[in-house]
Amino acid sequence: MHRISAEIGRFFQTGRHSGQPESIELIEPIFYRGMHAFAVGRLIGDGSITPLLISFTNTSKGVQVDSVMLSRADVGSLFGYSRSYFHVDLPVVSAAITLLRSFMPRKSIDELYTVLGRAKQGKTERISRSSAIWINRSTASCTRGERGLVMIVFTLPPTIWCSR
Q1: What span, in angstroms and rounded, lies between the C-alpha atoms of 26 and 52?
Q2: For residue 83, what is the DSSP state?
Q3: Beta-carbon count within 10 A of 143 CB
Q4: Which of 93, 31, 164 lies closest to 40, judged by CA?
């Protein structure tokens, strides 16, 4: 515990960060990957959010703190596609995604779902997001549907355009 508070104190004494943290929020279940366990959360203070990731290792002397990560770059690389999935039983996955995105806003939602071991949700998010982007950028036009049915039909390039 002393090592964790010392690392956080050093991080905020460098002068690059505004003020000391006022509160700590942790995702309740522990994240597991390989031989490590991770407590994942964030430090909140003075309108700023700092990631907090504490890595634990089980050694012959017992469970010990392996590292304390407070850098967005370090935490972001740990939550990337190049790593294996975390094993974590989250009661509400979307709440964890929201917390993670608060300090990793450039990380895509589908990538976070996937790295949390939710490959199907990640794939669905990726397909729906990429489809929405493609439709918004395309020159899609609305065409006639079938009489008596409630529907909208789009024709997208490179299909043959229908006249109205």
Answers
A1: 8
A2: S
A3: 14
A4: 31
Cα–Cα distance for residue pair 87/67, rounded to 1 Å: 19
The tens digit of pLDDT for each residue in 47-101 reads 788 899 999 999 899 999 999 999 888 888 888 766 788 889 998 998 999 999 9
CA distances from 48 to 11, 52, 120, 139, 146 (A): 14, 13, 33, 41, 54
Residue 50, helix vs strand vs coil: strand
Distance CA(111)–CA(91), nearest Å, equals 19
Q: Report DSSP letters for 11-35, one per residue.
A: HHHTSSS-S--SEEEE-SSPEEETT
What does each C-alpha distance from 152 to 139, 144, 145 come to in angstroms? 16, 8, 6
DSSP code for 106: T
